[in-house]
Amino acid sequence: MTSSICTQKGAKTCNTRITKAKMQSSNHRLRDMEQHHPLLSGGPDVEAGSLAAGVMVGGPHSGHATGNRTMWFIQDSCGMVCATMTWFLVLYAEFVVNFVMLLPSKNFWYSLLNGAVFNSLAVLALASHLRTMLTDPGAVPKGNATKEYMESLQLKPGEVIYKCPKCCSIKPERAHHCSICKRCIRKMDHHCPWVNNCVGEKNQRFFVLFTMYIALISAHALGLSGMHFFTCIKVQWNECSDFSPGVSVLLLIFLCLEAILFLTFTAVMFGTQIHSICNDETEIERLKNEKPTWERRTRWDGMKTVFGGPPSLLWCNPFTGLRLRRILLSHGRRSGSEFSV
Question: Of 184, 192, 198, 240, which residue is the catalytic one?
Answer without folding.
Answer: 192
